[in-house]
Amino acid sequence: MRGGVVLVSHDREFLARTVTRVLELDLAQHTNTVYGGGYESYLAEREVARRHRREEYEEYAERKADLQARARTQREWSSQGVRNAMRKNPDNDKVRRRAASESSEKQAQKVRQMESRIARLEEVVEPRKEWVLEFTIGAAPRSSSVVATLNDAVLRQGEFVLGPVSLQVDAGDRIGITGPNGAGKSTLLRMLLGRVAPDSGSATLGASVQIGEIDQARGLFTGEQALAERFEGLVPEFATADVRTLLAKFGLRADHVGRAVDDLSPGERTRAALALLQAKGTNVLVLDEPTNHLDLAAIEQLESALASYDGALLLVTHDRRMLTNVNVDRRWRLDGGRVSES
Ligand SMILES: Nc1ncnc2c1ncn2[C@@H]1O[C@H](COP(=O)(O)OP(=O)(O)OP(=O)(O)O)[C@@H](O)[C@H]1O
Ligand SMILES: [Mg+2]
């Protein structure tokens, strides 16, 4: 392709394969920066630039603190000098008194010098910390050893037929699910979780299965209700203040929680869904395109939360980097309603 292309994406692999320049909009710093070179070199340069900003600031902060400490000491000396001069007054020794007050005047001058050095220091603004999410996925007590099974299950949706499919998910299985648009991935998940019954064959769910889900439509976070209310309704055991704290941790602050969930951005809805995963215990985690709409920092955090999660995991994603970064031990591939395992 000859013309220029402007591409907005969080898909790291796609970016790495296509772009030659990266424009980064940094909300925390209120800056935008253009990085030459492709995506990988952007990652490397960004890291270096961040380190530099930090170091510059630390150097400045250290100098300033040092000068301030010196000014403080001199101020003390100077007032001591005045006191000493007063105390020595009774001798009426004019010479000594003048000497003392001269020396305290000298001290005061030093203090002023120090203060003007501080004022002349070129201020380096502290780089604001980026939004860092550290979250874990709440663990529920272990489920039965078999989490879900399908036996010759068939489901029809209009023209589309899923199955017949027979499979079993065991506790602790980590399954990556891929396939083209419309292949039946989301439908398969719905049937596995018992949200829709098969037209023929059977679907069963194991005992004490606690499902934690991010569905593709972020269905729990749609509608007119305010985010805080919706969330509280989903975790009634949480106090209002705790809900606010939790949402804030996921980057959803005071100006978000009062808004109708429909008015949140897709990424914000996804973060709310992640917050819910942390709040509620789960032993079967079902993620349907979880990285859609998430920014890069949140994707990385999700990946690291998944690394320490030890329940069953069903992960549908088109994000190739995510599939590589998250350890899965089974791979299902869907095509035209058929499931194959590799
Ligand atoms: N309510 C419905 N009525 C009729 N057809 C439907 C309905 N819901 C889904 N389908 C069809 O079922 C097929 C499978 O849909 P599904 O959402 O499971 O695909 P998918 O693999 O999750 O795709 P994507 O990658 O786009 O998420 C599609 O052809 C879709 O058009
Ligand atoms: Mg889908």
TrEMBL record:
Compositional bias segments (type: Basic and acidic residues): 88-111
Domain of life the protein comes from: Bacteria
Coiled coil spans: none
Key word Nucleotide-binding present: yes
Keywords, in A-Z order: ATP-binding, Nucleotide-binding, Repeat
UniProt GO MF annotations: ATP binding; ATP hydrolysis activity
Signal sequence, renumbered to the chain: none
InterPro entries registered for this protein in UniProt: AAA+_ATPase, ABC_transporter-like_ATP-bd, ABCF, P-loop_NTPase
Chain spans, region Disordered: 68-111
Domain ABC transporter: 141-342
PANTHER family, per database record: ABC TRANSPORTER, ATP-BINDING TRANSPORT PROTEIN-RELATED
The name this protein goes by in its record: ATPase subunit of ABC transporter with duplicated ATPase domains
Organism: Gordonia humi
Taxonomy of the source species: Bacteria, Bacillati, Actinomycetota, Actinomycetes, Mycobacteriales
